Amino acid sequence: MGRGGGAVSSVLEELLAVLPSQVVSADDDVRAANAADVTGHLPGGPPAVVVFPETVEQVQTTLRVAHRLRVPVAVRGRGTGLAGGAAAPDAGIVLSTVRLNRIVSIDAVDQLAVVEPGVVTADLDRAAAEHGLRYAPDPASSEWSSIGGNIATNAGGLHCVKYGVTRESVLELEVVLADGSLLRTGHRTVKGVTGLDLVGLFVGSEGTLGVVVGAVVKLQPVPVATETLIAWADSTATAAAAVAAIMSSGGRPSVLELLDQATLQNIDGHSGTALAGQGDSLLLVQTDGWAADREADALLAVLAAAGADARKLSADEAETYVELRRSGRGPRPDLWTIGEDVAVPRSRLVEMIRTIEAIGQRHGLLVASVAHAGDGNLHPALSVAKRPGETAPPEVLRIAADELVRAALAVGGTISGEHGIGALKREWLADELGEPQLDLQRRIKAVFDPLGILSPDSFLAVTEERQLVP
């Protein structure tokens, strides 16, 4: 339920009494611009106020006010999330971390960086490169997304097949809890097993347990060499079988991506390329390290044996193909689209791709899939043409999405590989975790946030009914 106008005014007055006016905004345009992530999901009205802290102390002050008034708070990075996890609470506070954007230090010997949550992911990678290092997690939104948002969702990216998701690169965290207290957890050492792994608990918690205000993250040496291959296949199933062959060959690629025919057509339409006519599906493969060339040659043979037409790329070609994978696609205003993010065991990848295609055919939908295929993470988009007068997506899209997610669970997969659960995928959460584990997770949240003011519309929210039924 929304809060009354008097309560909204009280929140604003209380914050202005203890914070500099330049970090507090109740401007209509500012509130609207910070109310949701890219999904546009907004469960209620706009927030009462947006706070842009510039110091850790200002984050603490904001949460102390919220805690005392029992006002809900949503933490927002740069709004690139794809699961509705940063949706503003009705008449509550949006706490934006964009001004906490310092790279505090980079240590080339210990190979780590100390950063604030508002640092843009690609900016950290570029700064690390000056020391011969890199930040391995690389979501497609790396030029816009922030480290804090990556930590909140345990973001992935192209290099995860070799270097792991965000959790594998976070060593230490500073977190402001719901009552405004400051917690430091983790360690900067290569090894450390003291106590429970609270860092691992905070990573992927989507703002439900506290506000990350600082992080020590692991850096990797820039590879001495990188080789890039492309391979064309006559179907997505053939491409997926080639992925399985690579992963069972003993090779360890640093990138292994799959793009289907509809995705190639989309890239051609938005980037002026001519990919779709060269094959049904495309694999993009990279190897790196001292033996990158030998490993690439070995994978060329594996791909050929799996029925794919593969070749090495020059450095310039490689840069082009990687960028097309990251940003070559564009929106289709003539279509209603639901994008998904599921992951399955690599041994079930071929089966899952065939199932997704069958779901699309059964419901008369266009299916366009890209995948971090090396780790079984699929991003299928289900689309249908907009009809004159339609103002909302037809129910068939939601039904097909439900079938797709349940199919992933049926083969031992997960409902999200890297985008998080947020509000938009929580309807399937109990199907994967089971009610006892979901209840335990809610009780853990209550330890950190006993009043339940953080991210009230999150994946741990208790809902009265599911959006879809089996």
UniProtKB/TrEMBL annotation:
<dbReference type="InterPro" id="IPR006094">
    <property type="entry name" value="Oxid_FAD_bind_N"/>
</dbReference>
<dbReference type="InterPro" id="IPR016171">
    <property type="entry name" value="Vanillyl_alc_oxidase_C-sub2"/>
</dbReference>
<dbReference type="InterPro" id="IPR036318">
    <property type="entry name" value="FAD-bd_PCMH-like_sf"/>
</dbReference>
<protein>
    <submittedName>
        <fullName>FAD-binding protein</fullName>
    </submittedName>
</protein>
<dbReference type="Pfam" id="PF01565">
    <property type="entry name" value="FAD_binding_4"/>
</dbReference>
<dbReference type="InterPro" id="IPR051914">
    <property type="entry name" value="FAD-linked_OxidoTrans_Type4"/>
</dbReference>
<dbReference type="Pfam" id="PF02913">
    <property type="entry name" value="FAD-oxidase_C"/>
</dbReference>
<dbReference type="InterPro" id="IPR016164">
    <property type="entry name" value="FAD-linked_Oxase-like_C"/>
</dbReference>
<dbReference type="InterPro" id="IPR004113">
    <property type="entry name" value="FAD-bd_oxidored_4_C"/>
</dbReference>
<dbReference type="GO" id="GO:0071949">
    <property type="term" value="F:FAD binding"/>
</dbReference>
<keyword id="KW-0274">FAD</keyword>
<feature type="domain" description="FAD-binding PCMH-type">
    <location>
        <begin position="42"/>
        <end position="222"/>
    </location>
</feature>
<keyword id="KW-0285">Flavoprotein</keyword>
<dbReference type="GO" id="GO:0016491">
    <property type="term" value="F:oxidoreductase activity"/>
</dbReference>
<keyword id="KW-0560">Oxidoreductase</keyword>
<dbReference type="InterPro" id="IPR016169">
    <property type="entry name" value="FAD-bd_PCMH_sub2"/>
</dbReference>
<dbReference type="InterPro" id="IPR016166">
    <property type="entry name" value="FAD-bd_PCMH"/>
</dbReference>
